[in-house]
Amino acid sequence: MNPMNAIFANTIYTGKSVVTDRYLTFSGKNITGLAKSAKGQVLGRYDILTPAFIDPHSHIGMERSGEPSGEGEANDQLDSILALTDALDSVQMDDKAFRDAVESGVLYSCVVPGSGNIIGGQSAVIRNYANDSSNALIGRAGLKAAFGYNPMSTRNWKGKRPTTRMGAIAILRGRLEEVRRKIQKHKKAKGSKKEDITFSAEDTVLQNLLAGKFRLRAHVHKIDDIAALLRLVDDYKLKLTVEHAMDVHQPEIFHELRHRKIPVVYGPIDAFSYKVELKHEDWRNIRHLLAAQVEFGLMTDHPVTLARQLLLQTRWFLRAGLSKQQGIELVSRMNARILGIDDRLGTLEKGKWASFISWSGDPFDLASYPVAVYGEGELLFSDPN
Q1: C-alpha pair distances (Å), 250 with each of 172, 223, 284
Q2: Which one-letter DSSP state was computed for residue 79?
Q3: CB atoms within 10 A of CB 77
Q4: Which helix (H) or strand (E) element contains residue 20?
């Protein structure tokens, strides 16, 4: 039986509320509760406690710190539809960015392929503190897709490539239609004729997408690119998460996403607007996101914005009117919910993983920093000062 441990904090952001003068108790990898009196061994006393942070869209371990850009592995140039590729297979856990992330309290990431291909491959939700990529994996969060400028900018790569937005949509539509018709033909076939209809490994992935077994994680920035994507979603009844949406400067499309219950993984806010499709990017666009009350979380898109700066981006939301508790929720509970891991992570509640950050002071004060970081009940980092 695992021993009971406790951490005291003057203030605890649970991911749902704020409580004061409490002990967070845990045994093994799981939280046992919040208590007014100590239960078990008290491992420390701190000013502030928050849940571990989760980055819902990252290329950490794929685009690696200190390595030439030519060695980056976020995009494979083999073809524009790569449903079988798996981001996890290119993750290298010796990337220095993992250590920086953990020391900043960002303990989990959803690593996704890049946006050079229309379908980039499978995403992987990982521990940033694991010793290898197999032990890092804790879940899956969908199939990465990309629309807008990026997939039409890679026309010199191998395979069938679009040169326009309509071309990218057409290529994906054609592939989905091919699989859908094969499914329909297979359902109608009888006896040996049914066995004659075979599905390739890539067909099977797209078949599962059409069946709603996982989401399309769609890189898209502009209003009309989202509108075009929604037409595709309507035609094929796809489950969708909108990734980025940084050029959206009018409220209507966010209201439409809320009406459809389509979540947004927003960001990265502190990145340079390096292309035309980001010409309307502005932190003030946040007001449209908030006014629409669409479900959303916050990404870094590491290394576009560094993983260790995830919490720093929330300052714009506080400026737009969110409370500090809501700012913490953005990078913990909301991201966990969108990724489908909120049964284990995102809040400091009984039964969830004991993954949390102890702070020297107010997390939103630039002079404050993590002094102890725990992942699944284990001390991962302790500040030597």
Answers
A1: 27, 8, 11
A2: -
A3: 14
A4: strand 18-27
Question: Which candidate, 190, 218, 219, places its Cα nearest to that of 278?
Answer: 219
Q: How confident is the model over 107-152, as pLDDT tens digits?
A: 999 999 999 999 999 999 999 999 999 999 999 999 999 999 999 9
Superfamily of domain 53-345: Metal-dependent hydrolases (3.20.20.140)
Find how far residue 276's CA is from the centre of its chain.
25
Tokens of 371: 């002094």
> Cα separation of 127 and 56, whole Å?
12
Q: Which fold has domain 1-51+346-385?
A: Urease, subunit C; domain 1 (2.30.40)
Q: Strand locations in 245-368, DSSP E?
A: 264-266, 296-298, 356-359
The pair of three-digit structure tokens given for residue 331, joined into one six-digit string: 């990078």
- The helix/strand/coil state of 382 is strand
Furthest CA-CA distance within the chain:
72
- Tokens at residue 255, please? 């209201």
Model pLDDT for residues 213-234, shown as the tens digit of each residue: 999 999 999 999 999 999 999 9
CATH 3.20.20.140 location in the chain: 53-345
Please give the Cα distance from 218 to 264 (Å, whole number). Answer: 10
The CA distance from 306 to 67, in Å, is 15
